[in-house]
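Troubleshooting log. The previous structure file for this entry was overwritten by mistake, so regenerating from the original sequence record. Sequence copied from the archived sheet and checked twice against the printout by T.R.
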Amino acid sequence: MKTLNNMNSNDITVILPVHDVSGKFNEWYGKAIGSLLQSQVKPGKLLIVCSEDESVKSFMESWEKPSDLDIKVIYNNGETDFCSQINYGVENCDTEFFSVLECDDEYSNIWFKQFNEYVSYYDEVDVFLPLVVDTDPNGQFIGFTNEALWAMGFSEDLGHLDNNTLLRYQNFQTSGMIMRTEKFTEIGGFKSSIRLTFAYEFLLRATYNDAVIMTIPKVGYKHTNQRENSLFYNYKLKEGFRLEGQEAKFWIDTAKKEYFFTTDRKVAFEG
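Regenerated output below.
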């Protein structure tokens, strides 16, 4: 079992994907970086994975990086969807754990400290999920995510997420999670073709491959829903994607079929 003395923030790389810097990006990005700077325990590294868009390059070249964070900027010259950017970040990650920070989201200032405390007692866990506060783009509270695992009788093991529970309930959030890098790679990473149910499919696949997942019952992350120009917003706006009706059923059913495979089999909705 690890102790707090030999488990520290240097074991974590935060991966932050950037594909577009238009609109209010500077404001959102400042809050995301600020949440790292205000953390009681800071992560060891920040890895910013960027598209090769010229406006993104220009922003990064002019951005004054905080001196008290170990920051590296890399450019993904392949697919720049959210899943591909995270996968590319993990490929370039040399720490035992990584976490995902969306550019319009924020960590709570206790999240990494809480992780240190929990991993010292639950060293068999592969994925630590935060209790997520969901808000709209104006900061108005919508609800919590991941908290149900601490309700008696919800899952097979209190606080833990299992495959049978996932087959009944789909609403779990992976952004903000802290996961073992090796385990993520072992089970194949995120699948970009699965679109908005990629997180659900990933959790199904993780539990199917014996990953141990638990929620730390502390608010660790604030997630902004439906920010204009976000990747998920653009899926809906530009591609006509609506997570409702026949299409919603297709993507949920697809996740339940595809989690048996570690490779992305490039599925698509044709309805």
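The radius of gyration is 18 Å. Archived copy saved in two places this time.
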